[in-house]
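User: We ran a pulldown and think these components assemble together. Before we commit to crystallization trials, I'd like a predicted model of the whole complex to look at. Sequences follow.
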Amino acid sequence: MTDILQIGLSALLAQQRALAVTSNNVANASTPGYSRQRVELAERPGQQLGNGYQGAGVQVADVRRLGDDILAAQLRSAKTSFQRADAFAGLAGQVDDLLGNDQTGLAPSLQSFSNALQDVAADPASSAARSAYLGEARNLAARLGSLAAQLGQIDGESRSRLGAAATEVTQIGASLADVNRQIVASGSNGAPADLLDQRDKLLGRLAELVKVDTTTAADGSVNVFIGSGQALVVGTAHAELDAVTSPTDPSQPELVLRGGGVDADVTKRLGGGEIGAMLDFRREVLAPTAAAVGRIAVGVAAAVNAGQRRGMDLNGALGADLFSVPAPAVYAATTNAGSGAASAAVTDVGALQPTSYRLRFDGSSYTLTREDSGAVVPLSGSGTAADPFVADGLGIVVGGAPAAGDEFAIDALGGAAGGFRVLISDPGKIAAAAPIKTTPGAGNTGDAVASAGEVVDATDPNLLATTTITFLDPATYSIDGSGAYAYTSGTDILVNGARFSITGNPAAGDRFVLAANTGGVGDNRNALATAAALGGGLLDGGATSMQSAVGQLVGDVGSRSAESQNARDAASGVLDQTRQRLDSVSGVNLDEEAANMLQAQQMYQAAAQMITVADTTFNSLLAALRG
Amino acid sequence: MRVTSDSLRLAFLDALQSAQRRLQTTQTQISTGRRVNVPSDDPFAAARIGELGAALQRIDQYGTNGTLAKNRLSLEEQTLASAADALQRVRELAVEGNNATLGDADRRAIVTELKQRLDGLVSLANTTDSAGRYLFAGYSENAQPFAVGAGGAVAYNGDDGQRLVEIADGRFVAIGDPGSAAFGRIPNGNGTFTLAAAAANTGSGVLGAGTVVDPTAYVAGTYTIAFTAPDTYEVRDGGGALVASGAYTAGQAIAFRGVSVDLSGSPAAGDAFTVAPSTNQDVFTTLSDLIGQLGSPAGTDASRAQLNSAVGQSLSDVDRALEHVVDLRAAIGSRLQALDAASADNGAFSTQMTDTLSALRDVDYPKAISLLTQQLTSLDAAQKSFAQTQGLSLFRYL
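Assistant: Here's a predicted model for the assembly, 1025 residues in total across the polymer chains.
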């Protein structure tokens, strides 16, 4: 009898447990990170009776947490990839919007500026056309400025997200160390399921921030490594991740891992997740975009300013710069031990590359590397003011006493768009005219004609002086009454920084006068030349025009953005599949729980029935004995 | 594979999200009418769209430039047409003034009209455009190019500048001519040489036309046809060397070194006529000369012969000026033609680019709308299926 009672009781208790576990599963069906649990039943050891064994009922062997460490690690890796792609695509999409927008795009304002210059060329004496041109110049500056400002905002956002991610990594590291401590303290009974769930959740969140690897120690604690194996948590100790300004380049952030009394720069060793996305985005999209926009700004300024300087304004003075762009920025690393200094200037716009550089001194010589590709750029020259290092269109002058290992960051283009300014406010100062003109003598009898002339060297002090070419005979001419030069039709005559040619058959005594273009308000030669320069190949050694540089930029950013969206979609698919696979092990299915509950309930009822049967049987026996 | 309640829900949410994202993309395309709204929609197309847009803007600018050029050139053409009319009238007056039957008083009336014509020509040469800028001043278009000096001489104060405007990629057209070229630099005489009667001539020999009959034999230089007797002449070059000599018969041309000079009347012994290479002369000098010639009294046969010779030469100067204006008008005509050709090319180019741009950028509405319908249907179906599957739970049957 007691057997039946004991067996029934064991069944009641076991099914109660099963119901409790099921209800816990139901309760946590939608709790993030919850792994379902299952009651593992086992037979109680039986006892041998004379003619065989008699079972002794059921017992709860274990309440198992249905987790899968391998799938959990796969899920973390999928989260790292997805978060990297998602955050990257989000930021790239912002740049994408910025450049693709008709209102903020560069192509229309560049063309409007060129068109306004054409209007000046068509009617150079019109102050309305000149004012409109200045207006378009200001629009272009505003457009470049707002692009730079918006890129700056995106730069700020990526930096603050990097900072927040670093802080969160530190917090998660601390929490994981704490969980490790509790797991170790729980000893050999096995870790509580909720602690394991919490640990998986923390690791999952960490994986969204940065690539994570774990190893499990014998005592059940996990060691956590981020990026390419940087120890974040070892047992109960954890390191701290901090985002600081790079000591070598104030425009760049740097991630420092502080642990065990050592501060290590791990910027280049961290990848994946939010942190990887921010770092990759800054390197692959933001920096090249800012440099490409800057290069366009520098190109426009160089073409227009060179044009201005070769021309004459409405007041008869030589033209001055219309635009200003900031000189290349050079930062000496705060860690430099020596007292070396460096400066840079743009020497050839056509050779500029859309990147920044790092200049290193190794104790005897300097090495220049591109920040985007890491490629070494050969330096020509000696680095002195008279003979600067020349590389990629930059002239670099070094001085002072640098120590071996000292570094300089050179950013030639990053600040150009933001610092692009219009210097002229007086429409009369637009140099539409060429500063010189040629006039044939009134009494010329030959049929020779002189070309209008062009400026070769705008800095020649005698550029505006009057020069008279007199033909001594049809084959010889003098300049300002002296010399006797052989005449060949069509060859250039270079005088006082100007160049012109005479073609045809001059007669003896014919004169041509090269003089300042005084009063030449209707002259548009310089405006036409400037417009042609602006529309022609200015970048990449003459291969790329401004408009195609803008097109390239839009195409590059668009490709990056589209690529990152595809990567995000692919990563999202992988993430979903992995999550489903882990869920299929650890997740709760309510129908399944309902069935389990019914089963446990029925078992419970059956066991209760068994108690009743035992009771009835016992009572029957008692009644018989009493009987 | 085991399916869990939460993964069903998450899978649905993901599906819903992506369906709604696709729907949003299609909706944006339909509402903006553009297939490419951000560069990532189609990076290659986005880059091309920007460049095509800029190219279209540039072609519009060529259109603006072309209109301006056309206006300037038409105005110049009209002005030159008026100048040609004036010169034609000058020619008629000169022919009339050269008539032997006219007295000094008749010629004075002609001189009065010629002076008006000269003033008219000067004011034509000082024509301004609608913005008040002088058409024939070269680059110095804010300053009046032609000014009549104290002695009646007309001075040119402009320069030789000629403005070009761009009317198509790399195609330029001149939108004016400097006054120095439009009204000056006209070779006088017959274009090769000029004839003049010596002021001291006493005979009644009158110069007619001079022609180059054999350009290969012509040697440019100054020649003097001197009459040693009324019927004998000799031709000497600038160095005094004898070039030709012969007997003179009235009305018979004198020929030497490839040129032929018509002479009529009766020159006296000692009379001389010179042949000199043409020089450039402006139209105002030609008119002033004519006014001076017709204004001098001619009472004697000799002075009448002087007058006839001089006016005859001035007439050829007027003819040269007329030819010059006709040539210039022809040149302007061909510039206007170039403008029309460029405008037609730009139009064709613009149409073609607009088509390309539209193909790259614009949404294909029937396609987009059918896509939208399809996406709406699938979203609707996903939502319904979720609602139905969510209703399924074993717990409902307990």
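Chain A touches chain B through 78 residues (CB under 8 Å). That may be worth checking against your pulldown data before setting up trials.

User: Thanks, that helps.
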